[in-house]
Amino acid sequence: MTTDTFRSLFTADTLAELFPPHLSDQFFEALYGDSQDGAYDISLVFVSAGPKSLEFELHLTQRPSKCLVCSLTHGLPEVFTRHPLINIKGLVKKIDAILDDAAHCSDWKMGRTREISRELHIVPLSISLS
Questions:
Q1: pLDDT tens by residue, 48-102
Q2: Which residues of 86-98 are buried (b: 16+ CB within 10 A; e: fewer)?
Q3: Residues whose CB falls within 8 Å of the CB of residue 107, separated by 6 or more in sequence, listed in order
Q4: How far is Cα 130 from Cα 127, in angstroms, rounded to an integer?
Q5: What is the 3-state secondary structure (H, E, C) of the chain?
Q6: pTM of the entire structure?
Q7: For the chain, which residues make up each domain, given as ranges?
Q8: Start-to-end C-alpha separation, the chain
Q9: Which of 30, 24, 26, 16 is nearest to 66 (CA)?
């Protein structure tokens, strides 16, 4: 399968179903007791596909009147890996189901948080295919 084929599978609507926008509020509600205390919204973005991998990113987008740079985003890959609301393991299972018999997700890993700008940080998610 080519990147374009995968891109047609992982449309904006599909990505929003896989990682619904309300998860950001639920995450901050669990973390701080109030979703309004969250400094960013989290969304899933498909980046590319290789012969044996899929590359996604979790985009952390600054909320109005909040400071993303002031937030502790660098420890998030480990937090996201274990947090039951974010549920990366479950997310990968859903991605595997979308792939059907074309490929199977065999493993995954989260990369380090990267600061793209003051308003956007990303956490890479690499999925190995078999």
A1: 998 899 999 999 999 999 998 887 787 889 999 999 999 999 999 999 999 988 8
A2: bbbeebbeebbee
A3: 127, 128
A4: 10
A5: CCHHHHHHHCCHHHHHHHCCCHHHHHHHHHHHCCHHHCCEEEEEEEEEEECCEEEEEEEEEECCCCCCCCCCCCCHHHHHHHCCCCCHHHHHHHHHHHHCCCCCEEEEEECCCEEEECCEEEEEEEEEEC
A6: 0.93
A7: 3-129
A8: 12
A9: 24
The CA distance from 130 to 51, in Å, is 9
> Tokens representing 111?
């990369």
The residue count of the chain comes to: 130
Amino acid sitting at position 92: V
